[in-house]
Amino acid sequence: MTTATAAAPQKTAVETPPEPIKHISIICSKGSLDMAYPGLILANAARMSGIEATLFFTFWGLDIITEDKVDHLHVPTVGNPSIPIPTWLGGVPGVETLASMMMKKEMEHLDLPTVREMVEMLHDAGAHLFACRMAMDMFKRKKEDLMPQVEEVISAMDFYDKSAGAQVVFI
After folding, report:
1. Burial label, 170 (beta-carbon count in 10 A; 0-12, 13-18, 19+)
2. Is domain 23-75+115-170 classified as CATH 3.40.1260.10?
């Protein structure tokens, strides 16, 4: 004969709520129009939420903060799997310009600031903007080539020092 034992009530652990994010560091590595906005928007949302924001622009992401390039970013149409056109059509002259104009028009319709305005807003809101030393050397750019909102040109190791304790996002 077996006896059934009553199950003892389970103690539930009291979960500690997660720590709020206090600092976010965003690595911006791509300089196309469609890839400039994610990092800038995330940094803007962080600053609006009282979260410290650090942006590190490397490789083609330098175009986002380079004076003579920031106003001429475009949407790449060749090899972009998110654009619903055949790859060969993306290479036809004028298609990339048309796609860029359409995206800029839609952003204007949504009242989104331009990339230049976003960089200025972030700087004014206290975000920290840095350019990558290695990428600057590789692309033969000087600090004078960058927007004035860029604090300094730093190494990847310096970026890690400035990002101590931060959530790091790579775009």
Report:
1. exposed
2. yes
pTM: 0.85
- Total number of residues shown for the chain: 171
Q: Is 56 exposed, middle or buried (0-12, 13-18, 19+ CB in 10 A)?
A: buried
Segment (H or E) for 96? helix 95-109
Closest by CA to 61, choosing from 86, 35, 38, is 35
Q: How far apart (Å, rounded) are the C-alpha atoms in residues 68 and 64?
A: 10
Q: What are the structure tokens assigned to 50, written together? A: 């009282």
pLDDT at 101: 86
Instruction: Give the strand pairing for 152-154 and 167-170.
Output: unpaired
Cα–Cα nearest to 130, from 101, 160, 105, 110: 160
Kindly give the parts of the chain with pLDDT less than 50: none
- Domains of the chain, residue spans: 23-75+115-170
Cα–Cα dist 162/55, whole Å = 10
For 5, the 3-state DSSP assignment is: coil
Contact 162, 130 (CB under 8 A): yes
* Whether 54 contacts 26, CB under 8 Å: yes
Q: What is the pLDDT of residue 2?
A: 56
